[in-house]
Amino acid sequence: MPVDSPSLFRRQQPVKISALASVLSLLFVAPLSWGSDEAAPVLTMPQSVSETPFSSEREAVIWRREELKDIESLLRQLRFDLVNNQDADAATPRLVELQERANAQHLLPAFIAGTHGSGSEARPSIWEEWDAFSAGFADLESKVGNLVEATQEEDYRGAARALSEVATSCRSCHRAYRFN
C-alpha cells in the first residue's frame, strides 16, 4: 500500500471501511471444517503424503517449521504496527496474511501422521491427540478474529490484548505439542 494512500480506517472514508470490513470478515468467517457439514471438507489427519500437496514427508516437515516461524515473525511485525506505531493501515495487509496462514486448513495438511522424527520439533502426541490438536486452531482463528476487529475499530489497547491472546494460543500449543 503506498505511503500516501488515504487511511482505510478513517471515518471520512466509509466506503473503504465497509469494503475492508467485508474482505476481512469474509476471510474470518470462511467455512471451516470443524463439524460434519457435508459442504465443507473434513479436516482429518493426513495419513500419507498422497493426501497432501507435499511431495514428501520431509518437505511437509520443513514447510510447516518455516511457515510457523514466518507466522511468528508476522506477529512481531503486527505488534510493531499496532502497539508501537498505532498504525492500522500498515497492519491491514499483515492481518489479511495472518488470517490466510494461521488457520487449520492451511497448516494441518503438513502434519502427516507420524512426521515427528528427525528434523521435526513435533511431539508424537499431535497424532495421538489429533482432535485436541486440530481444535487448537479454532481457538487461534477466534483470537485472530478479535485482533482484526480491534484493528478495524482502531482500538489499539484492544489490539494489544488480542495480540497477547494470539501469542498465548500459540504458546499453549507449542508447550503441549512441540519439543523446545
**Count of alpha/pi helices:** 7
Structural class, from secondary structure content? Answer: mainly alpha
What fraction, in percent, of the residue positions are helical?
Answer: 55-70%
- What's the average pLDDT? 82
Poorly predicted runs: 1-42
Largest sheet: none
- CA-to-CA gap between the ends? 37 Å
* Radius of gyration, whole Å: 18 Å
Order of secondary-structure elements:
HHHHHHH
How many strands appear in the DSSP assignment? 0
> What portion of residues belong to β-strands?
under 5%
Please tell me what the overall shape is.
elongated
In words, what does this structure look like?
- The structure is a single chain.
- The chain is mainly alpha-helical.
- 62% of the residues lie in helices and 0% in strands.
- Helix 1 packs antiparallel against helix 6 and helix 2 runs antiparallel to helix 7 (156-177).
- The radius of gyration is 18 Å and the shape is elongated.
- The chain starts with 13 loop residues before the first helix and ends with a helix.
- Mean pLDDT is 82; it is low at 1-42.
Set out the fold topology.
Blueprint: H1 14-29, H2 57-84, H3 88-101, H4 104-107, H5 125-128, H6 130-152, H7 156-177
How would you describe this structure in keywords?
mainly alpha; 180 residues
Short characterization:
By secondary structure, the chain is an all-alpha fold.
